[in-house]
Write a structure and sequence with these properties.
With 40 residues, the protein is mainly alpha-helical. 85% of the residues lie in helices and 0% in strands.
Length: 40
């Protein structure tokens, strides 16, 4: 990353982290909905 944009590097890192958390959240939600669907 260019040293001219230090804040943009942190922004991309935060976006990458948020994207990872979001994907895990969606995966867990989808799995739980399947489990609840089988129980119901």
């Amino acid at each position: 990353m260019s040293s001219r944009y230090p804040r943009s590097g942190r922004l991309w890192a935060a976006l990458g982290l948020f994207d990872g958390i979001w994907r895990v959240f969606l995966a867990e939600t989808g799995r739980m909905s399947k489990v609840l669907g089988h129980l119901l």
